[in-house]
Structures are given as C-alpha cells and as structure tokens.
Amino acid sequence: MRQAGERKGAHLRHFFFALALTFLGGASTAHAMQCGNRIVRQGDASPRVRQVCGEPSEINLRVVERSRTIHRQLPDGSVISDTITVAVQLEDWVYDFGPQRFVRVVTFESGEVVDIRTLGYGTVNGRSAPGE
C-alpha cells in the first residue's frame, strides 16, 4: 500500500508543477525556433528566417529608445559623462502555426534575430511553416 501512496504523491507533485508552469506562462523567451525540420536562432538574418519559416502571419514595427553613458577624460584629468539616447527600430514577425502549436514572435534588429518569444496557442486560421 505504501508504494501506491508514494506514486500518488509523485503524480500530485507532477500535476502541481505542470499547473504552476501554466500559470507562470504568458510570454517566454527562447533562443531558437523550429520550422519544419529546420531551426532558426538568434543571430540569423531575416532572409534566412523567411526562407526557413515562410512568410509571417503579421509584421509589427516598433521603436525603442536605448540610452548609453559615455565617459570622456579631459586634458586636465577630469572626467565628464554624457548620456545619449538613440531610437532603435525593431521588427516583430508573428508566426501563427495554428491551434495545435504556440504562436512565436521573432524580433529583428538591423535585420538580425535578437529575440524569439513564445505566446499562447495559435488560431484556427494559422498556417503551417514549409515542410509541415
């Protein structure tokens, strides 16, 4: 009897772990995404992602501001600091692979993958990547 109780406890722990992962969900970040039997990763160029994964369901452009502090030493030895802010354009390519798979958002900066996020399940109108 003790073994059955131990197994039940193990199943409950697995259940609560899975439940916690579900509620902690939302968007998560990954370093790679599978399209068919190919992989795209951070650092890949946008033409390669389009070739491997096909056309995204949608493309969203956004601008983020980034600040950087620059320190300069003057001839008298003193140091001055300047903070500059630059606007950086990002492209978010949304891949909706359908209701059986998660939606993936691939973010590009200067034509290169800088982030891949996972959202919830896709829609019925989602389409498959090449090779699926």
Which bin fits the share of residues in helices? 10-25%
The counted number of beta strands is 7
Low-confidence stretches: 14-26, 128-132
Mean pLDDT: 82
Major β-sheet, in short? 5 strands, antiparallel
Query: Distance between the terminal alpha carbons, to the nearest Å?
Result: 47 Å
Instruction: Indicate how many domains the architecture comprises.
Output: 1
Question: Can you describe this structure?
Answer:
- With 132 residues, the protein is of the alpha+beta class.
- The chain has one domain (27-121).
- It has helices at 2-24, 46-53; strands at 28-30, 32-35, 38-41, 58-73, 79-95, 102-109, 112-121.
- The strands form two sheets. The protein has a five-stranded antiparallel sheet, with no helix packed on it. It has a two-stranded antiparallel sheet with strand order 2-3.
- Strand 5 (79-95) and strand 6 form a beta hairpin.
- The longest helix is centred in the N-terminal third of the chain and has 23 residues, at 2-24.
- The relative contact order is 0.20.
- The model is unreliable at 14-26 and 128-132 (pLDDT under 50).
In short:
By secondary structure, the protein is an alpha+beta fold. The chain has helices at residues 2-24, 46-53; strands spanning 28-30, 32-35, 38-41, 58-73, 79-95, 102-109, 112-121.
